[in-house]
């Protein structure tokens, strides 16, 4: 079976949240953030879930539709409202500062992502 780019971005990800295995739908996750040896996933409604996996491992499983803003922080690209200078403004009002070393790559990935949705 062939999985399209859009389907791959919607495939649920199974993660250990400490006492249970839980499926996370990438469309429901807006932010992935490192927290020491754990990773915190923030959903559209603002709830946070801590998972027992390192950031790199979780980030790899959520790579479609997400972009790494700086070390230990990924956001869902379709929740970006604007990019102004070094800042990414999200629809929920959050503002993230891009690392200088990643700025061009972030803008390129975001542009490619948005153009592929048209």
Please provide the count of β strands: 10
Main sheet properties: 5 strands, antiparallel
Beta-strand fraction estimate: 35-45%
- The CATH superfamily is known as LytTr DNA-binding domain
Q: Segments where pLDDT lies below 50 for 5+ residues? A: 1-8
Shape: globular
Report helical residue fraction: 10-25%
Give the SSE string.
HEEEEEHEEEEEH
Fold and architecture overview:
This protein has one domain (5-117): LytTr DNA-binding domain (OB fold (Dihydrolipoamide Acetyltransferase, E2P)), CATH 2.40.50.1020. 24% of the residues lie in helices and 39% in strands. It is built from 3 helices and 10 strands. Strands 5-4-3-7-6 form a 5-stranded antiparallel β-sheet. It has a 3-stranded antiparallel β-sheet with strand order 8-9-10, with no helix packed on it. A hairpin with a 4-residue loop joins strand 9 and strand 10. The two termini are 25 Å apart.
Structure summary:
The protein is of the alpha+beta class. It has helices at residues 5-10, 55-61, 103-117, and strands spanning 13-16, 21-24, 29-35, 38-43, 48-51, 66-70, 73-76, 80-84, 87-90, 95-97.
Secondary structure: elements and pairs:
Elements: H1 5-10, E1 13-16, E2 21-24, E3 29-35, E4 38-43, E5 48-51, H2 55-61, E6 66-70, E7 73-76, E8 80-84, E9 87-90, E10 95-97, H3 103-117
Antiparallel strand pairs: 1-2, 3-4, 3-7, 4-5, 6-7, 8-9, 9-10
């Amino acid at each position: 079976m062939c999985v399209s780019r859009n389907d791959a971005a919607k495939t649920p990800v199974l993660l250990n949240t400490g006492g249970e295995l839980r499926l996370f739908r990438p469309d429901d996750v807006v932010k992935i953030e490192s927290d020491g040896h754990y990773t915190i996933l923030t959903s559209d409604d603002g709830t946070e879930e801590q998972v027992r996996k390192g950031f790199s491992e979780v980030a790899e499983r959520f790579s479609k539709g997400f972009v790494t803003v700086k070390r230990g922080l990924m956001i869902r690209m379709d929740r970006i409202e604007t990019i102004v200078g070094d800042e990414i403004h999200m629809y929920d009002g959050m503002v993230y500062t891009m690392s200088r070393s990643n700025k061009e790559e972030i803008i390129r990935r975001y542009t490619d992502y948005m153009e592929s949705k048209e």
